[in-house]
Amino acid sequence: xxxxxxxxxxxxxxxxxxxxxxxxxxxxxxxxxxxxxxxxxxxxxxxxxxxxxxxxxxxxxxxxxxxxxxxxxxxxxxxxxxxxxxxxxxxxxxxxxxxxxxxxxxxxxxxxxxxxxxxxxxxxxxxxxxxxxxxxxxxxxxxxxxxxxxxxxxxxxxxxxxxxxxxxxxxxxxxxxxxxxxxxxxxxxxxxxxxx
Length: 196
Description:
Radius of gyration: 27 Å
Strand order of the largest sheet: 4-5-9-8
Strand content: 35-45%
Distance between the termini: 72 Å
Shape: elongated
């Protein structure tokens, strides 16, 4: 490889040609002739999914190299908190970015911190729901309408107690997040009565 050579590559499993994107810091002459494309030279090649990169070295008056093939396996991202809301029974539902494994009985209760109006509330159970990306935190003291609620999660060092996706990836810890509380307040005889 010298200053007259260039590396062309593809990410769609086709063979590279001179028209394919170039990845080559030594191709100095090309920089001055194609200034509009300079930002694409040596830019990292994003790999967000399993990807095959094929590369070919070409040089004026020289035979092209053999095509080199590189296969990359993207790492799956762990499940992330999508949203949290108060259930109709005053517990907390947590939605994740992935389908979740059944957390019932794994001992995950102590990893969650729920606060209602600034006061901690004990989580007595972490259970599965009928919605694939949702788990439910059962609370010792139920939430009522109008209360301000937050939830946080600290991933256990014990892998057996971690809340995981159906593919086995553990959810990462998250700091206190607001929980949507849409429980209704009913009025009976002019007096507010908290609904559940």
